[in-house]
Amino acid sequence: MLSAEQNEALTRIGPGTPMGDLLRRYWHPVAATGELDDRPTRPVRLLGEDLVLFKTGEAAYGLIERFCAHRGTDLAYGIVADAALRCPRHGWLYGDTGLCLDMPLEEEMPAEPIKLRAHQAREKAGMVWAYLGPQPAPLIPDWEPFSRQGGLVQVVLSVLHCNWLQCQENTMDGIDMEQLMDALQSARRDGAPPPLPPLDFAFDEFEHGFVVRPGESGAAVTKTSLWPNGLFSGDDRSCRFEWRVPMDDETTLNLAWFFERAAPGSDAALQSGVHFWYAPTREEETGEALQTHQLNKKFAIWLNQAPILDRTKEHLTEGDAGVVMLRNKLFNQISLIQDGGEPKALIYDPARNQKLRLPETAPLFAAKPAEQEPAFPYLAGQPDDAAEAYRRVVESWNRDEAGSP
Amino acid sequence: MLSAEQNEALTRIGPGTPMGDLLRRYWHPVAATGELDDRPTRPVRLLGEDLVLFKTGEAAYGLIERFCAHRGTDLAYGIVADAALRCPRHGWLYGDTGLCLDMPLEEEMPAEPIKLRAHQAREKAGMVWAYLGPQPAPLIPDWEPFSRQGGLVQVVLSVLHCNWLQCQENTMDGIDMEQLMDALQSARRDGAPPPLPPLDFAFDEFEHGFVVRPGESGAAVTKTSLWPNGLFSGDDRSCRFEWRVPMDDETTLNLAWFFERAAPGSDAALQSGVHFWYAPTREEETGEALQTHQLNKKFAIWLNQAPILDRTKEHLTEGDAGVVMLRNKLFNQISLIQDGGEPKALIYDPARNQKLRLPETAPLFAAKPAEQEPAFPYLAGQPDDAAEAYRRVVESWNRDEAGSP
Amino acid sequence: MLSAEQNEALTRIGPGTPMGDLLRRYWHPVAATGELDDRPTRPVRLLGEDLVLFKTGEAAYGLIERFCAHRGTDLAYGIVADAALRCPRHGWLYGDTGLCLDMPLEEEMPAEPIKLRAHQAREKAGMVWAYLGPQPAPLIPDWEPFSRQGGLVQVVLSVLHCNWLQCQENTMDGIDMEQLMDALQSARRDGAPPPLPPLDFAFDEFEHGFVVRPGESGAAVTKTSLWPNGLFSGDDRSCRFEWRVPMDDETTLNLAWFFERAAPGSDAALQSGVHFWYAPTREEETGEALQTHQLNKKFAIWLNQAPILDRTKEHLTEGDAGVVMLRNKLFNQISLIQDGGEPKALIYDPARNQKLRLPETAPLFAAKPAEQEPAFPYLAGQPDDAAEAYRRVVESWNRDEAGSP
């Protein structure tokens, strides 16, 4: 149980807040790169700030305050030219440093330069990442799956109307919520009590976060809680990342990144690409939280807790050891940076940032029988072309085993 | 005219408020029993409290706090098993007393028992009723129409975004609003001034509320204002109840219960059943309050007054004697229970709670000519199967009179 | 840049505010007359007041407080009879002075008369205008285009969720936003920097507002900023007015009035009429501001600034001389009326209020080639019959020139 002050400290992420300061020390993915293809500008809400992301060239981006310094026009409607962003109203032009470079309707530029707050944005693994913290910026971690070839990459974004921490705490739950829910669901169908033995989990801190694993067996790791706001799960053939990016105190962008390897040598392996989409979280008609897919079930839990979970009313138990560990580490790191220290898991040396490996886990979901149509089990709203690509990749293994296409 | 403080006292119904305390002394219908058929859990908002209703067996229900004591998970997504409700997240199991009975992931239960606030829920007349007050709980009144056979029962729920009192005060208006509106409407069509004589109404308090009747004639009762938040109107063949159940200060569940008798011996009399539905209150496209049906017209009035009517600006007249009587009784009963007294209309003795009769009224609406298709005149959104059942019941009388089906 | 207090002073328009007092000295259009055809009552929100407009006869209107003095019933549901408005609930009858004339359910009227606040409403040029200020009321300006014949009149209403001033300041921007946006758009397409020379505009105050014109050339006026919240643009063949009518601090009714002349003697000239519609401002599916039409593009700018633009953060330049002139005049006029003076542009003498001419401007948009289907370029949502009428009027000139239909 936390005090109200402690709950505030962990959940508020705006400029100048303790947690806001800590999270600003890390890169956060904010968009799929494909989102900038049709229109090179996009509003971004990140850590309580209103920003505009604009694409200035091949893999080059600017990220500055959203509203023009002149008279407050929304630069998300701006026009990108010459690696800079022009306000649609009177044509003021901003470079990626936020400096105003041109005022086409004025005889001369003002003596005092005008400058919008500017941040950094970079492309990696089909996502655009943003950094809002002090310089020098660390590197975006080069996770090993980011350089995989011969498979399908999917970037799936969901806007969740709840605080980031109730999402991230879930990564430190010993049991996987989907497994538990499945077990309980089948218990309901059979009328029998759920066949759940008391579970003993251990949480090992390591360089990049925490590993969650069964306590006394040598069995595979269950999942990795990436510090400070991510998740990794999967193996060499199939894996996913999730980041819970705080847009503001009551809104979180859940950005999930999936890799699904095609059978080597298959047509599907050659046709691999990156798909992205926004996944809905609620049924259109009723407004109820969707529960059709594995991550949507988790979203439903988080969304229905409250916009910001009131942790003064909780009753933690032995099984919450991981959650407590995560909170303690957050408090510890807040103090650390307040004392001028360097927080956990920053990477500055490019030589050390190469294909970083994370622990493999057993596949979470048993493969469907080959005769069934493969369907993406994680998130609702998959577009037809992504579904078709997913089907091809999954089926490539069957064909391979059968020895014929 | 009320002072601002008086208006607050009558309209605020959350825990610990004077009116909240008074209304907690009575049972309130909160759902149609059929709502629990497909899914045995349902969120309930009642008197400012967030609760979850769950069906534990044949006509058995639990009603406890909505959010799990562990880490705030929404129990409306819970799983009912063994007459208890299991949290979908870590499997904590709650009985209908609110006590946590099982934590399947823990080695042992905590020394200090964990308990959610629990209330009572019972089934009667096709509705689930809730009681949030002190023990011993009174009985749910056994109104005589509840045991009628050989007719159609309809339970129609409408969520109104306004305070309960502006709905209930309407029961103490002398003239029936529908009649007045109809008179005024025809006046408009004819261009003539409305043919409304000054009306003289009397309001007689009785055991279960107030009877509204013409002042000096012996004519039939107009309607009954059921204490503290109901209405009854009708006769042996056709009648309705309405309860205005406060969900919170600015939201009211109008739960209406209709009985329509089929001609004795007709097929319709044998096929009688219970239908339920949620009636819309606004046009989907424009958002304007629906005015297509008799009760919808009243809803439109209430909804457009303001979320909580400001009674400091009103100008009451002789015609508002009933409204004043209702308010005075509410103030009187608030004082009474604050002094430890037992409020009006509670029934504790089962022997006295048998087929309680209420005054009959003349049918409010003239029967349609037999050649017209009978249509339910009260509430929008009637599903096809209920409409068909209603038509059969109404037409059974024509067939009966004609002596042939 | 304004102080926070100055920004408040110019943007808040409720009863008793300095700007509210100033704007109450003028007539404001609040509806198309056709809106009262089907139903003779309409809720009106104007300058922060909730009112009901009702049509009492040929071109006669009442405009009184929206909620009945009795018990707060919404009079927008009222029944109009005998040039007065009857409450739908208990039949209280209000004349256009706001006085309660009849209480049909009471034996006698109260000794103390009951009176709702009442304002004035008049019809002119297919619009209903309202006046909420002190008596004597000035005249509604009789702009010359209002008496044009032989063409199509369109009244197009848009509800904008932003403060009135960010709309009206736009009338004092030197360059026309649409032209600039078009230039910038084509710059984007070509990759070249926008071909915009530094522009020199002049703003001349005159009796009815400000004329905006190129600074050193004798070229035609660009547009007229009508004092205090209007715009005029166009010539004898085609012109438009726009008024930015404050509904409340954060909502503005943009009411646009268009005249499009048909070729003299053409069939279209004989069939001219008045069309009206509500134009959408956002895409239904995405909720994004529409940018399909010229005025919608401007709306998008205003809507995305913020509900009330924060002028403490702006950086004004030489090019904002017009905006500064407008603000100074507003401050000046606020002081003037606080000292008991008569503000700018009021007309009291009917002899002086006859076909008032405004400066003509060059047509803003080049005519489409004759072989193209003429389409109304200004606002989304034009109904089919208005589109057909518009097409006929525009094409009448081609036919005329060609000498055959």
Characterise the protein shown here.
Chain A contains eight helices and 18 strands. Chain A is α+β, with helices and mostly antiparallel strands and 405 residues long. In chain A, the strands form three sheets. An eight-stranded mixed sheet of chain A has the order 12-13-14-15-16-17-11-18. A six-stranded antiparallel sheet of chain A has the order 1-10-9-4-3-2, with no helix packed on it. In chain A, strands 5-6-7-8 form a four-stranded antiparallel sheet, with no helix packed on it. Chain A is globular. The first copy, chain A, is 21% helix and 26% strand. Mean pLDDT of chain A is 89; it is low at 189-193 and 364-368. Chains in contact: A-B, A-C, B-C. At the B-C interface, helix 4 of B face strand 5 of C.
